[in-house]
Every structure is written in C-alpha cells, then in structure tokens.
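User: Quick sanity check before I run a bigger batch. Here is a single chain. Can you write out its predicted 3D structure?
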Amino acid sequence: MKNIRNFCIIAHIDHGKSTLADRLIQHCGGISQRELHDQMLDSMDIERERGITIKSNTITLSYRASDGEEYQLNLIDTPGHVDFSHEVRRSLMACEGALIVVDATQGVEAQTVANLYLALEYDLELLPVINKIDLPSADIDRAREAIDSELGLDPFVALPTSAKTGEGIGDVLEGIVNHLPPPDGDASAPLKALVFDAHFDKFRGVIMQCRILQGTLKPREGIRLMHTERDYKVDELGYNQFKLAPRDSLSAGEVGYVIAGVKSVQDIQIGDTITSVERPADAPIPGYKEAKQVVFSSVYPMSTDQYQDLTKALDKLAINDAALTYEKDSSAALGFGFRCGFLGLLHLDVVQERLQREFDLGLVISAPSVLYAIELKDGSKVDVDNPTNWPDPSLIEGVSEPYIKASILIPEEFVGPVMELCREHRSDSQNMSYLSAGRVEVVSEMPLGEVLFDFYDKLKMITRGYGSFDYETIEYRKTDIVKVDILVNKEPVDALAYLVHREKARPRALHYCEQLAEAIPRHQFKIPIQGAIGGSVIARATIAPFRKDVTAKLYGGDVTRKKKLLEKQKKGKAKMKQFGSVNIPQEAFVSVLRAEKK
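Assistant: Done. Predicted structure follows.
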C-alpha cells in the first residue's frame, strides 16, 4: 500500500488540468505515441470542442521513481466549472492528495480558492503546480506570491511546469511520490468502497468507479449498496487504463471499476457505499451529499411528432447523467415536453447540445428559472419553479428566493464597474479584500435568479476576460416576485410566461414584446403583443398588418367612392381580427427565450 498514490488535479476552469493529465499519462507510458491526442481523459466531442471537462475521469498509471521503486498512481481528473463542483467533491473523497494548478499568467482565481477549501474540508495533502511557464507573459514569482498569500500554501514547494511542452513533468511525478501520502486502510476489515462515479455501457450495464477504503473485493462476491439497500453480484473488477484491465481483486487503498449487472445509473446513487452481503460494514462512508438542481427549464420538441424521440433521448441521457432530473410538462402553444432540473446554466447548455447532436432533435427551451418558496395565506407552503404553477396573487402571503454568496476575483482597475454590475443584479451586500498587489476579491450576496441570464457574460466583458466567478447557495430570503404573462392578440401564451422581481418586470417584458414583434410574421390584421402582471399591461409592441391597395382600380370620380371601399376594407379587417388566429413560428420562441436581455 505504501507504493500507491491516489490524487486528483483541481484548478480554475482553463488552467490546464486536462493537458497536465495528458503529459503525466504520456510520461508514464499509459498510452502509445500513436494513440496519443489532446484531452485523453475527455471522452465527449463537446468536451474537446469547448476545451472543458464535464465528467470526471480516472486512470491507473505505473511509474518507476528515482528511488527505483514501482509506484501505482491513480489519477482522477476533475471538472473546473462551478456547475460541476459536486463531481469535484466526490473525486476528493476518493483521494489522499491533490495537485492544485495555478496559471503562471493569471495567478489564483475564484474556482481555485473554492476547490482549495473543498480539499481542506476532506483533509487532503496539497501540492501546488505553476503551469504555463512557457508563455511570454508568465510570472512565476508573482504566482508564488499568490500561492502564499491567497492559498496559504508553501510557495517554495510549488513546481513550475509547462503541460504544453512537457517541461517539469518529471518533477511533478517525483513530487506526487514524495509529497503526497499513501492511503491507509485494513485489507482484512469488512468491505467499504466509495462509488465516486459511474457511466453506462450498453453491453455491460453500469460501470461503477470505486475507491476501496477498507476490505477486499473479489469477482462473484455478493455486494450491497448501503444508501439504496440493493444487492448485486460482482461480474468483473479491475483497473482503468483507457481499456478496462480485469484483476482478481481490489483491496484497501486501490481505485478501480466494478461491474455488477446494474441496469441504470438511476438504480445507484453516486457517493454510495459498497459493502459485502456476507460481512457488512457497520456504517456507510460519511460526507455523502446529493447533487442539488438549482436551475429549471422546460424542454419541448421543435415539432410535436418528435415527442417520443425526446422521451427516449432523455431516458438514455439520464442513464449517464445522474444529476439531470425531468418530469412531464405541457404547453398550449408548444404541446408536450419535459420540465428539467439542472445544476447550472452550463449543465443546461451541455444537455441541450447533447440532445441536439447525439439524438438529432430540434428543441425549444423555456427561460430558465429557480425554485421559489411561497407561503400562502392559509398557512401552507409550496415550492414553484414553473410559471404555469404560480398561485393566484391574492392567495400569496409572501415569496422567498434562493440567495448565493458570490466570490469574484478581479484586477484592481475593474472594482468600480464590477460593484456597479452587482448592484444592477440586486446585490444585498458587497465586501472587498485585497489579496495581493493589484488583485481584489469582491464577495457579494445576491439572488441566484439574477445570475442565470447574463451576469457571467457581462462580468467577462467589463473585466476584459480577467474576472473569475464562483458561488455557493446560502439561504432563502423574502422578495417581491411577480408572474409576467405575454399576450399575443390578447391571448396569453403560457410558454412565454416568466417569473421576475417586480422592479425588473417592465424592462424584460418590453424586451420580450420587441423580440416577438420582429420574429412573428405580419398578418392581414394588426396584432398587439403585451406584457401583463395580472390585469395591468406593463409593456406593448404592435405588428402592423398587410394592407391591400383596394383603391388602385379607381381612376377618378367622386372621393366618396374611395371612402366607401376603404370603409368596406376596415370592416373586413375588424371581422378577420375577431376570428383570425396568430401563427407564432417556433423561431419566435427561440429568439425570445434564448436572447439576452437588453
């Protein structure tokens, strides 16, 4: 066991975690030169295109150190984006140490600090790595200062490296062996294994990624998942080495895969504890937390005959993505669909893109919203995330919405604009602290609903890409939320209704009306588009009608002939408006719901 090292790589998004993992794999000979490509541990096309990690992945490497000993290195790659912090949390539970990567050009950023606190929560040994030293703008001394002042780690232990060129990779591997501790655990004790990830294979069923904390697991052994209380029989187990490498057993301290005939990822809970049926452990592994959905949106097929395809696609996607929740939903304008729960906006984007790519579906997605807690006058409480289920305003005693504690790291020169941006998004309080020369942390408490639409994009824009942002949900607070209905030709369109704070209701309603007026084609009659709270209209746009020139055939004569024809046309238009229905194209829903608020 003293020759095993279980570690993960944590950092802010785009600081080079996946590239560093590639170099470690290459240096240890985990893959042949012919099969090598960028982002080896990122298996999805979307991960490679966007240059992000969405699913954490694991690989077992063999490394011969300078002391002549052969070491088994279990590397667990983690996502960097705030939406997938639950993946990071589970990966940390399976490790004894972590490489914390700092970009030599940008220094310590928000997600680095957040991941540091997560790692300290699980009492991990940390080894700082300064990456991207090959870039002309790299400043290693400033990065060491930031590691000392902002992370509180020893700056002289930090290893300078370039994951792109491979410079310093040997030092990183020696640092892993010498600085990070080996696992501990009794191989003869009752079995306790942590399920920290899982994915679905259509031939083998669910392949669980496990870390054995104590005991020994062998094929054909009966196992029990302690949270779900289900029993299975182990078919195969072994190490992850790009291809599954079967073994005779996995014992305390080791990381590997377990196949036990589980039919769906929904049948297990990630973070569950595996124990033996014959000799069970007394209690599950502590520290388990379920992934919590914070953003909700309705997904409809672009054409109604694709509903069955969408149902099958969501079933298949949920097999691999245990954090996605969905239930049936319907709309008078868009037909049948699903109300889905996501971990954040990036998670929503990824799920939408996977549905469109992997299953060739055209989708309409409603404006994302959060979960509001409503107290009714009869004393009962309800949670609502869908505008369709919003109670009658006369029955509502009070509404509460989720608040977040946002940590924004920025260069000093952008403090003013960032403070103003927070105030625009209804920030309750703002605290500022200088972390090092020229770098400021702004901590602000604001509603989660305000961050959903355009906050991150605006932050990147006003800080010229140097601002970084991380948040955690804290509590529910009283607020004044209203439901805004969008009426097309005086008929409410349920798929366009949204929930918003009262002071933001008019600007957003005006934006919706203007976008719809551009997207809906002209008809033979005038179409009013209105935004309304209850019975009062707060915004309006009008689509002018087509008008046939009925007086073109007249070549002279009395003006009353012309007036008579125009009056006849006017009566016809009024009758047409009375009976005419407005054709709203699907593109109109997309343009309104996915466009940014002006």
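The chain has five domains: 4-179, 192-276, 295-365, 372-479, 483-594.

User: Great, the batch can go ahead then.
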